[in-house]
Amino acid sequence: MFYAGFDMLFSILFPILFLVVLGMILYTIIGNISTWNKNNHSPRLTVPATVVAKRTDVSHSSSANAGDMSGAHGYDTSTFTSYYVTFQVESGDRMEFEVDGSDYGLLVQGDIGKLSFQGTRYLGFERS
User: Fold this and answer.
1) What gap in Å lies between CA 24 and CA 26, rounded to an integer?
2) Is the pLDDT confidence value at 1 over 70?
3) Burial 102-121 (b: 16+ CB within 10 A, else e)
4) Does domain 44-128 fall into CATH 2.40.50.660?
């Protein structure tokens, strides 16, 4: 009796969960394509700006070795760092861009120069 109820519950929940996960994946993909397209259709701008802040975002991921979900064979851990720099333009507006680690390392808070960007895409910064 218990197994029959479980089978029925599983046969109802699995398709619903599958559709929810599929919907989330599609929503993310469509959002990323939309942002990419909007950036490509935005003008490339170069404006005077000052570096006002820098930050990093470190994310961690672990997966069990040898396909063993119990972790009896240990875990592989991956770390990924995203780098962000906030610029202030002459109007007083601030814009934050994700940048490469090499650009992040070269930029210092207080640097003044010309910021180049296209939509939300960082293109570069040239000190004055």
Assistant:
1) 6
2) no
3) eebeebeeebebebbbeeeb
4) yes
Rg of the Cα atoms in the chain = 23
CB neighbours of residue 46 within 10 Å: 14
Q: Minimal CA–CA distance to 116: which of 66, 68, 47, 57? A: 47
Whole-number Å distance between alpha carbons of 107 and 53: 10
Q: Is the pLDDT of residue 120 over 60?
A: yes
Domain boundaries, the chain: 1-41, 44-128
Q: What is the pTM of this model?
A: 0.75
CA-based nearest residue to 98, from 121, 79, 116, 114: 121
From residue 30, how far is each of 18, 23, 84 by CA, in Å? 18, 10, 24
Q: What backbone phi and psi angles, to 5 degrees, belong to 111?
A: -60, 140
